[in-house]
Every structure is written in structure tokens, then in C-alpha cells.
Known about the structure:
By secondary structure, this protein is mostly helical.
Amino acid sequence: xxxxxxxxxxxxxxxxxxxxxxxxxxxxxxxxxxxxxxxxxxxxxxxxxxxxxxxxxxxxxxxxxxxxxxxxxxxxxxxxxxxxxxxxxxxxxxxxxxxxxxxxxxxxxxxxxxxxxxxxxxxxxxxxxxxxxxxxxxxxxxxxxxxxxxxxxxxxxxxxxxxx
Length: 164
């Protein structure tokens, strides 16, 4: 009943009704003081909200902490990939004999910076009886090497069909 009376006294304004009840001592006022006008309260809360949002945006965007942590994560990822590439090797085989072996990192760099030479050489090598495989601790499953063998078998079959 007291709430309805306060709401009627404030002409339906909920904030003014709460302030009315606070002034009568029926509702405990918030700690730290407060405003006794809904206009001031709305303005103050809107300003506080805008300031809080601005602080969050400037901290994330302009302080550089987000960018630096992103660059640090990218750097750590690159170092991890280089370490893995140096532990594993790409081998070139003729029959069962290993003709060449080099780290996967070198293969990746060749594919990135000289793919127009590297890919044709690998394909031409297939037609000259070369086979390729990956070897190392990260290539325990044979799925990649099986794909390499099937490509070599396809090149051999194509070479045989042309020679007929």
C-alpha cells in the first residue's frame, strides 16, 4: 500500500517514488549518498556509464596491451612451428635409398617463397621415380606418407600408360 501511495504521489515515476520513500525513511537510501532528482540521477548514471565504456575501450584499444599480447601469441606460435619443422624431415627417396633429407622448415620456406620452382620440381621428380616422405616424431601416423605414396604410384601408372 505504501509503495502504491508513493507511486501515485510521484505521478507514476518509479525513481521519484523510491526517492519519496527514502525521504520518509521507509526505504534505506544507498550508501555513499545519492541524488534526489530523477533528472540528475539519470544524467549522472549516463555519464558514469559513458565514462566506464570509454575507459574500457581506451584500455583495450589504445594502451597497446591487446596488440602486444596478440603479437606475442603469434610469435610463440611461429617459434613452436619452427621447432617442430626442425625436428621433422622431408626425405627424397630413389627406390629404398635416401637421396636427400632436409628439415620441414626448409620445405615450408621453399613452398612459400619459391613455389613456382619447388612444386614443378617435386612433380617432375615423381615421373623420374623419386618418392617423398616425411620422417620425425610428429609424423608417427602414416596418413601423409600414404598420400605421398599414392601420388608416386599415380605418377608411375601415368608414365606406364604413356609408354605403351
